[in-house]
Amino acid sequence: MSAAIVFAGVQAGYGARQVLDGVDASFASGKVTGIVGPNGAGKTTLMRAALGLMPIDSGAVTVLDRPLGAWSREGLAQTIAYLPQGGDAHWPVEARELVALGRLPHRARFAPSRAVDLAAVDEALARCDAVKFAARRMNELSAGERARVLFARALATGAKVLLADEPAAYLDPAHQLRLMDLLREEAARGTAVAVTLHDLALASRHCDEIVVLDGGRVVAQGAPDVALRDAVLAEVFAIAAERAPSGAVVALRRL
Amino acid sequence: MVEVRSVVSESRRDFAVTTTLILFAILVVAFAVSFLLGASDQSAGALFAGLFGGQGIAGLIAREIRLPRALLGLIVGAGLGASGAALQGLFRNPLAEPGVTGVTSSAGLGAVIALYFGLAASNPFALPVFAIVGALASAAVLYLLSRAGAGAVALVLAGVAVASLATALTALALSFAKNPYAMSEMVLWMMGSLKDRTMTDVVFALPLTLLGIALLLSAARGLDALTLGEDAAESLGVAVGSVRMRVVVGVALATGAATAAAGAVSFVGLVVPHVLRRFYGYAPSRLILPSALGGAVLVTAADVLIRIVAPDGQLLLGVLTAMLGAPFFLLLIFRLRSEA
After folding, report:
1. B172: which residues sit within 8 A by CB, 6+ positions away?
2. Which of A117, B85, B283, B317 is deepest in the core (most CB within 10 A)?
3. Does A77 contact B at CB distance below 8 Å?
4. Cα B237 to Cα A62: distance, rounded to the nearest angstrom
């Protein structure tokens, strides 16, 4: 297993408020890593730290065996694709145009899209099953369709690492499952996929690896049945799980 | 030959090309009419001959009066149109515009200070420089608002505050200047006009406007990426802070130069990008140059119209653009409210 992103003792925060309190974790290439934890546990901050969007107070982030600070802005943008939480299009651009933004890291300044960029856009649209509404404007699409287009935008970059923050929020169950399939497909191509999720059942069934965050620390990292074992669920979420014979979480109740 | 395909659908691209050609055609006609229209009764032939070195009164009128006015219409309109498009992209908000955000009034304040305290008389650079400094002062407010992620309401309210302050200080400056024509001059600066401009105004306005538009264009890609929000734009390799800085300084240069030449002409930057969106699409990068073209068309046409409606110069350029733009602004607000 090769780790695409490694966090070693990472501390980071916003001003006086420390959010990450010495995080040790890793996202492996070719796997879907689910990041779970209560609200405020530091899930989004962990992703922002990996992207260099916020300064790290201490510790180190390594991206593909190179320290984060050694990456150029363009190099990092080509290597990590990021799907922020609650992302949406601020202008009603055509879906295809939005997906093409994912190619920005590969385009030289002032250069138009090349054939290879357009091919990547078309492929990403096809993988997300979004071809039939590619020419429509974002405000004409349903929430589920918009989510697919935004996801295609992240795929179009063709990055070796994909960080998706709460992509399943606001999606109906069918779309959530479709999304998890897309994440799995992307991981099968060798991409390191990390995704924050609130739905523990979804995380437990569709992720290869789970990182449980609480209060800015990693409480557990490992295979879903290990990381989401009863003791962890009780300690972090104050809940108990009903499980399938495989050990996967199917339902939850409060302790 | 390299096959060039576009991200946007083909029909939409053809639409954009057609629109550009039509805008150019209108611009050529409006420019010609603007050049031929004036108080003195000169034949078109004499004026065109005068333009290319003809002697006598026709040559003088053509080169010293008509040409600067017609050229400034293009320059002022282009600067204001492009500024509006870029500001709207930066704030991801169709209400952002140099006039609404107070940049124009602040530039006017700078120009008035330069003019009425004798600075412009001793140094011809003083007028545009002061106008741009004034524009930069309010642009700094815009910069802070953009960094704080201000929404439409905060932006418009801040614009009201900045514009009111700049207008009050303009009035104060004019009364301190002990100028007998202070009141009428003030109206001129607050409403904007292209009357009685000289080639000197053109020489100052043109390079500053071009520089401003170039800065805005250098930020175009970043503005597109901002469609996805700031974090996503950063993750795509866009230096958002630098984009913000280039837009704000570019707007200050173009709007400052326009205001130094014409006074405060409002709402051009609001109306033009909005109207052109349905022809060029919503991506901010695609709107900056067309908005420069559209702004040039609008200001030139408006300057022609006021001379036809009121040949004696009772109607000021800024009055017409405000009469056109303010109701439009209200319409946009109503539409945004119903969407929210």
Report:
1. none
2. B85
3. yes
4. 18
Contact A73 B237 (CB under 8 A): yes
How much is the pLDDT for B4?
45
ipTM value > 0.85? yes
pLDDT tens digits along B213-234: 999 999 999 999 999 999 999 9
Distances from the Cα of B133 to the Cα of B110, B160, B261, angstroms: 7, 19, 15
Structure tokens that stand for B284 in this block: 């901010």
A167 touches chain B (CB under 8 A): no
Angle separating helix axes B67-91 and B126-147, nearest 10 degrees: 20
Could you tell me if A100 lies within 8 Å of chain B, comparing CB atoms?
yes
| Three-class SS of chain A | CCEEEEEEEEEEEECCEEEEEEEEEEEECCCEEEEECCCCCCHHHHHHHHCCCCCCCEEEEEECCEEHHHCCHHHHHHHEEEECCCCCCCCCCEHHHHHHHHHHHHCCCCCCCCHHHHHHHHHHHHHCCCHHHCCCEHHHCCHHHHHHHHHHHHHHCCCCEEEEECCCCCCCHHHHHHHHHHHHHHHHCCCEEEEECCCHHHHHHHCCEEEEEECCEEEEEECHHHHCCHHHHHHHHCEEEEECCCCCEEEEEEC
Report which of A223, A220, A200 is spatially closest to residue A211, judged by C-alpha positions: A220
Which of B282, B310, B259 shows the shortest CA–CA distance to B130? B259
